[in-house]
Every structure is written in C-alpha cells, then in structure tokens.
Write a structure and sequence with these properties.
With about 60 residues, the protein is of the alpha+beta class. The protein has 3 helices and 2 strands; from the N terminus they run H-E-H-E-H. The longest helix is centred in the first third of the chain and has 16 residues. The N and C termini lie far apart (about 35 Å). InterPro entries: UPF0236.
Length: about 60
C-alpha cells in the first residue's frame, strides 16, 4: 500500500466512522515523518499535527 492509497483509506475511514467533515477540530498524531505530514495536509486539511508521545520524548532527549 503506497502513501497515497493509505491517505485515501484513512480519509475514508475517518469520514465513515467518525464523520470528521462535521468536526470543528481534528488532531493528527504521528511520528513526524514527511509522508505522514503529506497525508495530513492532503487528506485531513485543517487538522492540527501533534508528535506522538514516544517520538516527542525521543526528540527531547536529543536536545
């Protein structure tokens, strides 16, 4: 499954299961990889990105 197909699937499931089109706020949690950012921007426009807890801790330890 390529990233575009994955994005389409996520978008479809999000709408069908959670009616995200009606949501005022959408939080997109990921590990911060670029391909996931592209999915967020392309398929969940207006959503806010948050780095997941594991990867946030990892980045903070590096700082």
């Amino acid at each position: 499954l390529d990233s575009d197909a994955f994005g389409k699937n996520i978008s479809y499931i999000a709408q069908e299961k959670y009616s995200l089109a009606d949501a005022e706020n959408i939080l997109f949690i990921s590990d911060g990889d670029r391909w996931l950012k592209n999915i967020q921007v392309g398929y969940l426009p207006g959503s806010v990105h948050q780095l997941d807890h594991y990867h946030l801790k990892k980045k903070l330890k590096k700082a």
